[in-house]
Amino acid sequence: MGVSLVAYRGQVLRLVGIVDRFGTYDSFRYPGPDHRRQRVEHRIVRTLCVRNLKLAESREDVTPDHWWFPLRQEWEELALQPGDRVMFSAKIHRRHKGYQPTKPGRPADPNHPPRLDHGPSPNVRNVVVLARNRSHLRYTLPQPGVVQSEASGLAHLAKPHSEAPIKDQSHYIEQLSQRDHHIRTLTAELTALRAEQQQIQGYQRDLEQKDWQLRTLSQELMTLQTEHQLRLQSLDQIRQDVVQQLSQAQDDQQHLIQTV
Fold first, then answer.
1. What is the Rg, in whole angstroms, of the alpha carbon atoms belonging to the chain?
2. Distance between CA 155 and CA 149 in Å, rounded?
3. Quick count: other Cβ atoms within 10 Å of Cβ 151?
4. Residue 86 C-alpha from the chain's centroid
5. Disulfide-capable partner of 131 in 85, 92, 180, 223 (CB 3.0 to 4.6 Å)?
6. Cα–Cα distance between 23 and 68 in angstroms, integer?
7. How would residue 154 be classed by pLDDT, with cut points 50, 70 and 90?
8. What is the reported pLDDT for 83?
9. Is 232 exposed, middle or buried (0-12, 13-18, 19+ CB in 10 A)?
10. How far is 133 from 150, CA to CA, in rounded Å?
């Protein structure tokens, strides 16, 4: 059981594998939504199967261990044969796997039912032949010039793979530097926010203390106002008593005068 490609969804991987076999399937294309009125475009699509898929860097087996690709220019220009060991780059997508009849009414293959699985995209890049299967070449001896030309072509095709780790490393270093700068910026902002939070908390404590002092002074003021009103009432009562006493004294004086 190999490493599942589900974990690499959306990533570009370098894979190695062995060309297993070639095949074809019928493709029926309907230009319009109404299949009965539009002309059906039929074509035969050539394919190839690559088995024993592994990660190029770690040589770990992957699941699924084989995948079918459309036989496009990237594959055709290498004149591949079954048994050739190849390396290529492809993005991992969730794709349909198994036989899918494109013509209405055609039954599916019960041995290979259609299903969704994660595998390489058909848009492969940097395809390189790592080793040829010499069994089908044992009766034909190539000329030295052909071998040199093939070796030069393979070296040119393998160059992106040799330069890719350096570019990836530089890219990763740049990303790490940017993330480190971003983390340091966020740390400084967080420190400033914490300082502002502490300052706000200090202001809040000061406001609570001043509010307590204000409430205390308000209570004292209410007490003084009550005492002041009581004193005013007492003074008013004294004034009324004095006025009453003066009036009584005047009445007594007039009475004495009248008596004399």
1. 48
2. 10
3. 10
4. 33
5. 85
6. 9
7. low
8. 94
9. exposed
10. 15
